[in-house]
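In this supplementary section we document a worked example of the pipeline. Step one takes a protein sequence of length 408 as its only input; no multiple sequence alignment statistics are reported here. Step two produces a three-dimensional model, which step three serialises into structure tokens for compact storage. The input and output of this example are shown verbatim.
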Amino acid sequence: MDQDFHRIRRLPPYVFAEVNAMKARARAAGDDIIDFGMGNPDQPTPPHIVEKLIEASRNPRAHRYSMSRGIPGLRKALAAYYQRRFNVDLDPEAEAIVTLGSKEGLANLANAITSPGDIVLVPNPSYPIHPYGFIIAGGSCRYVPVTPDADFLAALDRAVRHSVPKPIALVLNYPSNPTALLADLDFYGQVVDFCRHHKIWVLSDLAYAEIFFDGNPPPSILQVPGAKDIAVEFTSMSKTYNMPGWRIGFAAGNRTLVGALARIKSYLDYGAFTPIQVAAAHALNGPQECVGEIRAMYKTRRDVLIEGLEAAGWSVPSPAATMFAWAPIPPAFAHLGSLEFSKLLMREAKVAVAPGIGFGEYGDGHVRIGLVENPHRTRQAVRSIKSFLAGYDRVLEESEKQRAVAGG
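The serialised model returned by step three reads:
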């Protein structure tokens, strides 16, 4: 029986699916595809965290239902992290909640606060759950620039003056996925002042807070005086501690928003497996050398990639944070758009990247390159890309012929 479900109709086809299917076919045919497409950490979780998981798992009582808000010890560990890292005080009972990764928390909070037809302000390009969490919930998105500057603030002002109804919320994500842009406290302060005045909630995604390379550590919006009046912030264990499959994240800040998320989650889940939460608390409270080692690993990979691409003739800005490079499509290929360029790069260079269009229409001039391969594999990819770029006349000619045949 065919059904045209309302919420499914509002979701476009997943752009990455086409690249992923092509990658699967190439690998099935025996091709060695170097995959920079997904931001999926490739290194193991630090041993002391795994050992704590094993220890906690041996307790039979830990195999019962957990708590949808998260166990008290983990919420206290998050509060301690915010105090030492940002000098921000959190009440672990009312201003902190554990989520099944930051993605789940964002989506469920969107469901909690969005009524049909509500307008939410979202940067474009951005991580897909930022707009689609609200779209799934029945809202509509108005897009603003991703750059944390005067253009962004001007776009906020236009959005409030020209949107009907008035926007209910603003999504922020710095360090940004996919663009790797950073925001400073002065920018956050201006956003908080504006949104408090206009009674707009702020949802800040700080998943890459600890993956930074140059300059000062990225700040939290909760450092701004009065931010907790309107803002909630999402963080994650995935990248900081190489724990993506563990699905542990957090929301912290405004009591009303945290309470709304807690109420929604109380109907939907019993929380993550308790031993995972115990191990996550151990990660936050325990030795932090592993965080510095993970950060240094990504910095090394970044430098190998960016320097190699520059030598190959592809100038890509060096990201100051995150595990991604946001690469403008080389001028000779810009007319193809990001999806066709990504497919061409995979076919000719055996290198997979994420097309920028998957992060919004304003991302179509770029591809996202994940720092998820070791330096040896990265150098191998760079050599292939260099050969690909050197023969761009032939590559483009053959590509145009194939597209003409496909077009009939």
